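Figure S7 source data.
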Amino acid sequence: MTFRGALIGATIVVLGLLGAFVAAQTGLYDAAATSPHFALTYDIIHWVGVRSIDSRAPKGQMPAIDAATAARGVLAYDRVCANCHGAPGRARNAFAEGMNPAPPPLQFVGREWPVARIFQATARGVKMTGMPAFTFRMSDADIWAVAAFVKKLPTIGVQDYRALVTAMKDQATLPRVPPPAQAPDASRGRIALMQHGCASCHAVPGLPGGREAQTGPSLAGVGGRAVIAGELANTDLNLALWIQHPNLLRPGSAMPDMRVGPQATADIIAYLRTLKDP
Ligand code: HEC
Ligand code: HEC
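Tokens for the predicted heme C complex:
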């Protein structure tokens, strides 16, 4: 290169830097989220991001990524990621729609990205995009589980997604209902209902004195109802969970947790099952 060429090159660079400085200093560059990136800027952010993530992603030995791991990941996905990235049948939160770049649905990522890259992006976040790092908030095992779930995301429909979230919620957060020592007995259940003070809040057919109780709904016909407490399928398991842990199923419910033991719970359910007619 001649001296002249070098001088022209240097002048262009200096002018470019000067122009950038003036644009920045005068506020010409619009940093507002409402001002879109140029397509080229966007592509560059992406390209740099992916190259950087890949060069730091875990290599070699990786935890087993199977269906069970992916199923475990769905809860964290639903609780955390879906707020920004959405989920089958679920829109992103309103605030995420105003982000620039907007958090994309992760179906494409699930199809195209290796799981280690998804892990790395989730653990460390992506600078200047609004994608948070989760490594200080989630264990590595949980991040692998979420990454495994993202890999499965493209194959999951709306119904399946809801079913999976519900099933995993039941498994993950609900306590076990210990089995009763003896076979459930409705006549013992009637006494247990009285002894636990259920009839002080609920009108219970067949119990004296309970007719006027109005703090809780009448239990007449509860044995044959499709749902209890407004939202739970009326299975024996859900009834038992409700009787033992009402405040866990519905925080703030006016029905208190009364330490009803396993046998009394089973007996009470046997009695409630006899109350079929409203
Ligand atoms: C606060 C909003 C927010 C939350 C919460 C969030 N993300 Fe993101 N995510 C983003 C944004 C913004 C991007 C960058 C989009 C871009 O570069 O186009 C992104 C990018 C990504 C990418 C890279 C995709 C790409 O095309 O660049 C992955 C993978 C990802 N997120 C996974 C997750 C996972 C898994 C979770 C849950 C643990 C999560 N994100 C939670 C906002 C969020
Ligand atoms: C302090 C008052 C109170 C006591 C005591 C109480 N409950 Fe309740 N119960 C409620 C209220 C209020 C609701 C409705 C709660 C809700 O939907 O959040 C309810 C709901 C229920 C339901 C669901 C009814 C329906 O129609 O969906 C059942 C079943 C039930 N209680 C059983 C019992 C049993 C069994 C006991 C005794 C171990 C008991 N309750 C003691 C207040 C009480």
